[in-house]
Amino acid sequence: MSSQSNRQSVSLSTLNRRKQRGEKFAALTAYDALFAELISTAGIEVILVGDSLGMVLQGHESTLPVTMDDMVYHMNCVRRGNRGSLIMADLPFMSYADEKQSLQSAAALMRAGAHAVKLEGGAWLAESTRMLTERGIPVCAHMGLTPQSINRIGGYRVQGRDPDQAHSMLEEALTLQRAGASLLLLECVPVSLGAEITQALDIPVIGIGAGPETDGQIMVMHDLLGITPPNIKVPKFVKNFLAESATGIPGAFQAYAKAVREKSFPALEHSFV
Ligand code: KIV
Q: Does ligand 1 have an atom closer than 6 angstroms to the CB of 218?
């Protein structure tokens, strides 16, 4: 691994500026130092230490078994490899069930080097979002398909097709923005809803399966490399960038960042209408 500086060069202000200028940005998951270095040197603005590690690294069928210890371990690994990207870390299942627990869990991830934490859910998280933000911890809200609630939702499927559900999602996103959320991640919603929420919010919106209009795009790294675990159906919003790369994994990361910036990814074939 190189001995370059790991000083953060992408900040929330960078992402806000991108949104204001209509310039798209890319995000990707990473769970270890070497991939974090490759991703950040490829110019991908945001790294997510996602609880998807439960599925792609640990072999679980869902993200529910992932613990705070797991997240802190992987957060530390990613911090060592990072070369300037903004690092977000997921608060895992049941680590933010109330406000006090949210503070403790988020503090542990920030001490390990996260620049922001991500919480899955809607308006019920407004108070936690406010408390974290007031105490200096930037929050990324995660709405739409929220994998930690898979047992309640009943399957990995598109959310917000029903007009009432779409309306509540928009209202709840605005509530979280008012509570201080710095970012919103929107997963698996129709293109029109992804566009509507992105336009209505001042904060940057990062999409996965939310169409081409969100301010940023995110993918799970293993999906981008075409190695989705065999027990998981490859989602429609996935593109294997390694398949077309003449320069291996670094080339695949660069091609993804370029495609997002040039707005050629996601195409309609990767989106839900
Ligand atoms: O854990 C994760 O990888 C996520 C995805 C939506 C990017 O939250």
A: yes
> With 60 as the cut, is the pLDDT of residue 269 above it?
yes
Exposed e or buried b for every residue in 6-25, given b needs 16+ CB within 10 A? Answer: bebebebeebbebbeeeebb
**Residue 201: closest CA among 223, 180, 227:** 180
Beta partners for residue 183, in sequence order: 140
2 pLDDT more than 60 = no
Q: Report yes or no: 160 and 166 within 8 Å, Cβ to Cβ.
A: yes
pLDDT more than 90, % of the chain = 94
Q: 236: helix, coil or strand?
A: coil
Q: Tokens 């990814």 sit at which residue?
A: 265
Question: Cα of 5 to ligand 1 centre, how many Å?
Answer: 27
Type of residue at 271:
S
pLDDT for residue 265 is more than 70: yes
| Ligand 1 close to Cβ of residue 209 (< 6 A) | no
pTM: 0.96
